[in-house]
Amino acid sequence: MAREKSLWEIYTEQQLQEMEAVNARYRELLDRGKTERECAKVSIEMAQAAGYRPLDELVKAGSSLCPGDKVYAQYNGKTLVLYHIGTEPIENGMNILGAHIDSPRIDVKQNPLYESTGLAYLDTHYYGGIKKYQWVTIPLAIHGVVIKKDGSRVDICLGENEDDPVFAITDLLIHLAQKQMTKDAAKVIEGEGLDVLVGSVPRDFGGSAEEESAGDAADSEKKLRKTPVKANILQLLKERYGIEEEDFLSAELEVVPAGRARELGFDRSMILSYGQDDRICAFTSLMAMLETDTPKRTACCLLVDKEEVGSQGASGMQSRFFENMTAEVLALMGYPSALSLRRTLQNSSMLSSDVSAGFDPLYADVFETKNAAYLGKGVVFNKFTGARGKSGSSDANPEFMAAIRRILDENEVQFQTAELGKVDVGGGGTIAWIMANYGMEVIDCGLAVLCMHAPMEISSKADVYEGFRAYKVFLEHMTNIYGL
Ligand code: MN
Ligand code: MN
Predict the structure, then answer these.
(1) What pTM was computed for the model?
(2) CA of 275 to the centre of ligand 1 (A)
(3) Cα 385 to ligand 2 centroid, rounded to whole Å
(4) Tens digit of pLDDT for each residue in 330-382?
(5) Which of 80, 133, 223, 264 has the smallest C-beta neighbourhood within 10 Å, fewest atoms?
(6) Is 299 left (phi over 0), alpha (psi -120 to 50) or beta?
(7) How many domains are contained in the chain?
(8) 281 C-alpha vs ligand 1 centroid, how far in Å?
(9) Structural domain contains residue 156
(10) CB distance 234 to 206 below 8 Å
(11) 52, exposed or middle or buried, with CB in 10 Å at 0-12, 13-18, 19+?
(12) Whose atoms come closest to the Cα of 280: which ligand?
């Protein structure tokens, strides 16, 4: 049933209730999981509550895995994979759901803290594709970790509680912005202009300036006296977190919009929140995974980091993490050979889920209406992605799309198909091509959002629910299309 109606017109009273329940949990994940680490942590908690056990412990214990068993593995708290062992031979392939849990944001540099004219700042480098001008003059929070030289870890999350302070990036007042307003949008705010304002109170060193110049103060204190506001911030960091300036060298601090996910509209039909790309797909995939009873084909859910910067690195989809963990699972099932791993991966089917650009009537000229995604009409399939002649695309096989149409129709789940905008207007890619390298069937799909990559993104509650339903049907009903 490709894009027939608004889901709001189809849902029964009971479905509307389930939709609200699923969305309440979604908003909780958005609030508690604003970074890849936080999102992985919350996801692991949810998985454990649903009976998933850590794979590494089973490997150490030399346990075996049987149909019905549920295991998870994580890499450095940033990337997560779950397996629910099915009743069919695993070499027949798995049904895999994948999404990413990193989001565009502003990262703190390794030597960040400085003072200028009585104001203290953290210097930053933005992460992922952002319109820089959208990130000024909004309340910001700092989330992340500081790893001290002795290896101990300090978790930081400041700006989210009602009585927490927040942070901000300044912009030029309109009165003096005559020249700025003539710049094009990419240059209105420069990358080096995204420094975060963090304080303005000078430290009280006690004693007089004469004493200092007389040489009573130590060299390090003399240096600090020159930037008393920075010195005060360092003292506060020391008191609150036990960290020194040098500890920024081994920190991962992420600046994100402060505040909670909110219902949007008089009818409360939408969600306004940071980080819905791609936590809307990560959450719905995870929920589907956790609510699936022992499947025929082994079910798998992958939540990965670093998609927004190209999926490189050990926590990105291009790493061997997923392959290695799958090899461990196979070994515990009694299939230790490399050939078994190859067969399992090649015979698998995957929904690579990432957000779609929702049709926005205010910017209608960048969309082609027949092949656009609409809010409230269900999960979106992109047969291909890419840009400028499908370059960089992962193009799904029509045989696979046909099988997906069949199982979704049979289970009364609504879906739509789309492209990311008009031809040659732009484009983008996801993690699909990386998984396709194994020879498995992969298609890009996901849920529509408005203002993707903005500090606040907009989605439809109906799509969150329909996405969850679609992913569950895929895990339960997808078979190997070549009849294995
Ligand atoms: Mn994405
Ligand atoms: Mn993105």
Answers:
(1) 0.95
(2) 9
(3) 13
(4) 999 999 999 999 999 999 999 999 999 999 999 999 999 999 999 999 999 99
(5) 223
(6) beta
(7) 2
(8) 9
(9) yes
(10) no
(11) buried
(12) 1
